[in-house]
Design a protein that fits this description.
heterodimer, A: 222 residues, mainly alpha, MetI-like fold, 9 helices, 83% helix, B: 242 residues, alpha/beta, 6-stranded mixed β-sheet, 4-stranded antiparallel β-sheet, 25% strand
């Protein structure tokens, strides 16, 4: 029986590749958008006005303090009642981008605040504008702190993307659910699902570790 | 060049500068001394608005520093500021440290800024170390890079906030030598320091502060030989016996 199911599963592989591609598309787009928005929010959170800082802070807390599944449902099922109707794919990308942005915002703000205040004072005293301070003095130093956890965060976002299968996006997890109804061998089917996630995440984990080592070496040398 | 008129500053409820009146002329070297917590660092940090003041008027080179209409970038570009902890940019070489502000603030072309940077680093005795990062330099060398960083902006005023306090004793003189040369060349300087030998030799006037007030202002010989106030006498006796 097992052999029969295995052959069935092998025949379903193209379906899994489609799911893999969907997972890569959803999490890839969300990582790009989330990184850009997260950096903007993080910079504002570390150096913007008080009002801006508390608005962003409150939003980040709200998103971090609610389950991602609930956020996805709100965007997909509840927003339409307010007249905003979204397909599953854009709804998934919006929800995941927002989640990524919130986590990345905290990483970026933390990195900026970890730069010693004397750096900002010296730059201010020399007449550098706020933009030039950020661009040439603060961010290059903050990136050393930011990069390793940022890439680590990418791994978490790829894994969190499995949640969007709940609104019908046919990603790897959804493909698993659909396949297991034909091939009732859960361990085998979801084993394959797990392997496919791992194939995406493992290089990222290695990259994060590499950055961590490299940044430590650089900061001890400097 | 620098003019304090009834300047007052508070940190919350703490009154850290009280009715400060002081004029510093062009080319003058003024040493500020006093016990810790007397407000001397705060005094010079107000000059380029690293600290805001709450009352009074502070005019630098005919520009009102604490008027929000003033162009602070322009004022700060004319004032070099040297910190106790150097605050060099660790991710840049010595040359990068001294050229970033001339390039970005003064809009000097990179090649010219680097030429000025090399000359200035050579002048403070670091011609061999222009490509070194701060972590590869000793404390005294780092502070000399910091002074060169200030000088590359061709400032009208240099402010020093305890420039030798973080240095090992054997490195203090290499920094003081650079400052002596600057003073000889006619730079307007205000120096917060405990180096009384330097004050005696280089300063035109000594300002003695305690508890946020200026207690005495006198030429160094008069102040050191014959302080006019009890607080001045007490301060001098305590630093001379330690």
């Amino acid at each position: 029986m097992w052999g029969f199911y295995f052959n069935e599963l092998m025949r379903s592989l193209p379906f899994f590749y489609k799911g893999l591609w969907m997972t890569v598309a959803v999490s890839g787009l969300s990582l790009i958008a989330g990184t850009i928005i997260g950096f903007i929010w993080g910079i504002m959170r570390a150096s913007g006005s008080k009002i801006l800082r508390s608005i962003i802070g409150a939003w980040v807390d709200l998103i971090r303090g609610t389950p991602f599944l609930v956020q996805v449902f709100i965007i997909f099922f509840i927003l339409p009642s307010a007249g905003i109707e979204l397909e599953a794919f854009p709804a998934a990308v919006i929800a995941l981008s927002n989640l990524a942005a919130c986590f990345i915002c905290e990483i970026v703000a933390g990195g900026i605040l970890a730069v010693p205040s004397g750096q900002r004072e010296a730059a201010t005293a020399s007449g550098l504008s706020a933009y030039h301070q950020l661009r040439y003095i603060i961010l290059p130093q903050a990136l050393r702190t930011i990069l390793p956890p940022l890439v680590g965060q990418f791994v978490l976002i790829v894994k969190d993307s499995s949640v969007v299968s709940a609104i019908g996006v046919v990603d790897i997890t959804r493909v698993g659910w659909l396949t297991v109804q034909r091939i009732p061998e859960g361990l085998m089917v979801f084993g394959l699902v797990g392997i496919l996630y791992f194939v995406i995440c493992y290089p990222l984990i290695n990259f994060s570790n590499f950055l961590e080592r490299r940044m430590t070496v650089v900061s001890t040398r400097l | 060049m620098i003019s304090f008129k009834n300047v007052n500053k508070w940190f919350g409820d703490l009154h850290v500068l009280k009715e400060i009146n002081l004029e510093v002329a062009k080319g003058e070297v003024v040493v500020v001394c006093g016990p810790s917590g007397s407000g001397k660092s705060t005094l010079i940090r107000c000059i380029n608005r690293l600290e805001p003041i709450q009352k009074g008027e502070l005019v630098v080179d005919n520009m009102n520093v604490h008027d929000n209409k003033s162009n602070m970038t322009k004022i700060r570009a004319e004032i070099g500021f040297i910190f106790q902890s150097f605050n060099l940019y660790p991710h840049m070489t010595a040359l990068g440290n001294v050229t970033i502000a001339p390039i970005r603030v003064r809009n000097i072309p990179k090649e010219e800024a680097e030429k000025i940077g090399r000359e200035t680093l050579t002048r403070v005795g670091l011609g061999e170390r222009i490509d070194s990062h701060p972590a590869q330099l000793s404390g005294g060398q780092q502070q000399r890079v910091a002074i060169a960083r200030g000088l590359c902006m061709r400032p009208k005023i240099m402010l020093f906030d305890e420039p030798t306090s973080a240095l090992d004793p054997e490195m203090i003189n290499e920094v003081l030598d650079v400052m002596r040369d600057l003073a000889k060349e006619g730079m307007t300087m205000m120096v917060v320091t405990h180096e009384m030998g330097f004050a005696r030799e280089v300063a035109n006037r000594v300002v003695f502060m305690d508890e946020g007030q200026i207690i005495e202002v006198a030429p160094p010989n008069d102040f050191f030989k014959n302080p006019q106030t009890d607080r001045g006498k007490f301060f001098l006796s305590s630093i001379l016996t330690h």
